[in-house]
Amino acid sequence: MIRFVALCTALLALASSAHAQTQGNAAADFTLPCLANVPWVGQSSGTVGKCWSGALGTGAAATVGNATGDIPAVPVPSGDLATTGITPGTYGSGTAIPQITFGPTGQATGIAIVNVVQGALPGALNVAETLTSAATSTIVTADQVVMCTALGGTCYAVGSYSQTFNGSTTGAGGMDSGSLPSSGWLALYAIYNPASGVVAILGTSCASACGTIYGGTNMPSGFTASVRLTVLPTNSTPEIVAQWVIGKSVYYATIVSVLTSSSTSVSCTSLSLSAAVPIPAVGFSVVVDFTAGTSPTAGSYYVGFFGNSTCTQYGGVIKFYIDDTFTRTQFLSDIPLLTTQGTFYSLSNTGTSPSIVVYVVSYRLP
Asked: Helix H segments across the chain?
């Protein structure tokens, strides 16, 4: 867990001065004034004041408070505290902490909690997840997650995130309510309870909006901060389908067909991708099987994907020049999605039995 640092070097200097006045009595009582403009580690901007009073030293009691009131109560979780003597619980203004140990630079050590990060952006770094076959549970990891109460709200950062999601249960670690969506989309969120210090995972149906911050009405009790980790497809069982997540991208183990056409020419036409990409997706990649058919006319053969209904905003085009029967398979990567779960396409193909099949290979989240 990331250590929460309460004081800067100025406090150590004041503490040393107070001890000197006690003529060597390390456990003597003293009161330090509120220190203004002392930054918290992980704080991106601004400062807060802190008040400490009581005896300072091994086994001595100290009281931590927040003069300005803009830092939440500090949760001290179990684990990593065996050598500190600090009892797990929540410590806020006026609450005695059994033992505070100061390091050589004036940092308070031994309090291992999630960082409170002011002014941070919610997000997850290097998200990873893999299912080789369909299942109702999966493990999601990330190098770091920043969970927030709202966009622009209070945020909490934790490193080495790893949580198991079980779609057969509800509450922290499972669905927010009900069961896995059938043939739909499952949004997974990292969630945080600032009172207990517990970090967990929560699933919800992404049939409509599933934003960066959990926006449902079934957040488990005490959990106030969240961030979206990924959005995964489900089948009719329902189960999470086989796929793998690398960062913001989700790759299908079995690619999804979204278009089969035997037309020789199609002008700008809309194409639904709702079976292959979720609502938040901002890009997708495809594999195209293109067959000229028999007795083709020499010339250019193409299929193009576009962002608008006039097919003037190019997303990706595959084009061949051919003068005999052929079949080609081509890949187009990260075509931008300007329409939610949809794109526009046009194609040209000649011959007796032309065909084109388009498969979605992956999609990308913002």
From this structure: 9-21
312-339 residue pLDDT tens:
888 888 877 666 667 778 899 999 999 9
Q: Which two tokens stand for residue 260?
A: 């089969």
At which residue do the structure tokens 């400490």 appear?
52
Q: Residues near 123 by Cβ (< 8 Å), separated by ≥ 6?
A: 145, 146, 212, 227
Q: Residue 302 contacts by C-beta under 8 Å, 6 or more apart in sequence?
A: 317, 318, 319, 320, 347, 348
Q: Collect all residues with Cβ–Cβ distance below 8 Å to 143 and sequence separation of at least 6.
A: 125, 126, 159, 160, 161
> ∠ CA(8), CA(10), CA(11), 5° rounding?
75
* Token duo for residue 125: 């770094």
CB 148 within 8 A of CB 122: yes
- Taking the C-alpha atoms of residue 97 and residue 86, their distance in angstroms, rounded to an integer, is 7
Angle at 87 between CA 81 and CA 90, to 5 degrees: 110
Q: Cβ contacts of residue 359 below 8 Å, gap of 6+?
A: 255, 256, 257, 258, 286, 287, 288, 289
pLDDT in tens, 170-229: 999 999 999 999 999 999 999 999 888 889 999 999 998 899 999 999 999 999 999 999
Q: Which residues contact residue 207 at a Cβ distance below 8 angstroms, ignoring those fewer than 6 apart?
A: 181, 184, 185
**For residues 227 and 123, is the Cβ–Cβ distance under 8 A?**
yes
Instruction: Give me the domains of the chain, ranges plus CATH numbers.
Output: 9-114 (no CATH), 123-247 (no CATH), 251-364 (2.60.120)
pTM of the predicted model, to two decimals? Answer: 0.70
- Write out the two tokens for 181: 């969506």
Task: Kindly state the DSSP code that residue 23 receives in the 8-state scheme.
Answer: T
The answer to whether 327 touches 244, Cβ cutoff 8 Å, is no
